[in-house]
Task: structure prediction
Amino acid sequence: MSQLIKLPDVIKLTGLSSSSVYRLASNGEFPKPIKLTAGGRSSAWIAEEVNQWVDERIQASRADEVA
Result:
């Protein structure tokens, strides 16, 4: 079963601001939140997708280092 995390946890995991999270998600550069309620006012992210995004940023950063 997938774990869902709310925006404050996404911010803690990524170091991004809330506006950056939503901007990157709308540009397809960050996982999109899922809607938890019919009205769409409550949303959360799949923890595995956010963690994968962080891992990809780490790998990209390390790939630029020269041994």
